TrEMBL record:
InterPro entries: Iah1-like, Lipase_GDSL_AS, SGNH_hydro, SGNH_hydro_sf. It comes from Pisolithus microcarpus 441. This is SGNH hydrolase-type esterase domain-containing protein. GO terms for molecular function: lipase activity. Transmembrane segments: none annotated. Gene3D superfamilies: SGNH hydrolase. It holds the Pfam family Lipase_GDSL_2. It comes from the Eukaryota. Residues 11-198 form the SGNH hydrolase-type esterase domain.
Length: 241
């Protein structure tokens, strides 16, 4: 598959997405895999929950799809829930039912042919919030976050969108011991390199199984892949073709 010069992978989420550029982070690893094939754009918004994310997504996605000569989003990851699940009176809290509707709305903004943001070329992956370690992070509740992860799985099933189930993968990898989650969470909420590796592996498994045409091994490099093949005798104009 030949990629458009300007096409991108967009990562949309909260601080866990924003932090994906750290060494070993899932954004950093995807960017390395897709270098000269697809650009990786990190649109993580630290502290945001889905109520606040929707108007931001309208602005972000409009830039990508409502102007000429702007990169198209070939793959979109949506990763919220860690803040939505914050217990009251935290102003980040979003009720579970509203969180579900917000996730559906974000997906349908891209999927629905009646949406002004309709993008039939965009593949979507939903990501569950990771489990929290309330022994490290007292402002979060383990069972509440588990419940919000269940919502992501439900929305994925209802809308036929693949889900990277970080919650289950990390919980199982920890031996289902909340204290052992510190292997993956540096502060009980945010991921360290080991946590991002779990996420990255889940995303790549989904790409391989559900969107195989998007796997980096199936994409051609943009511009001549080998410098010796550049036909300099044809002039600089040939390089732009």
């Amino acid at each position: 598959m030949a990629a458009n010069t300007h096409d991108v992978i967009m990562l949309f989420g909260d601080s866990i997405t924003q932090g994906g550029w750290v060494p070993g982070g899932f954004a950093q690893r995807l960017a390395a895999d897709y270098v000269r094939k697809l650009d990786v754009i990190n649109r993580g918004l630290s502290g945001y929950q889905t109520n606040w994310a929707i108007p931001m997504f309208e602005k972000i996605f409009a830039v990508q799809h409502q102007q000429l000569h702007v990169p198209k989003v070939q793959l979109l990851t949506i990763w919220f829930g860690a803040n939505d699940a914050a217990p009251l009176p935290n102003r980040q809290h979003v009720p579970r039912d509203q969180y579900k509707e917000n996730l559906k709305h974000l997906v349908n903004m891209v999927r629905s042919s009646t949406s002004p943001y309709y993008s039939p070329c965009t593949r979507i992956i939903l990501i569950t919030p990771p489990p929290v370690n309330s022994h490290q992070r007292e402002d979060r509740d383990f069972d509440a976050t588990k419940s919000y992860a269940e919502v992501v799985r439900e929305v994925g099933t209802t809308l036929h969108v693949p889900v990277a189930d970080v919650w289950t993968a990390m919980w199982d990898a920890s031996g289902q011991d909340e204290r052992a989650l510190e292997e993956f969470l540096y502060d009980g909420l945010h991921l360290n390199e080991a946590g991002y590796e779990v996420t990255y592996n889940l995303i790549m498994n989904i790409i391989a199984e559900k969107y195989p045409e998007m796997h980096y091994d199936r994409l051609e490099m943009v511009f001549p892949p080998y410098w010796a093949n550049v036909k300099v005798e044809q002039g600089n104009a040939a390089l732009a073709q």
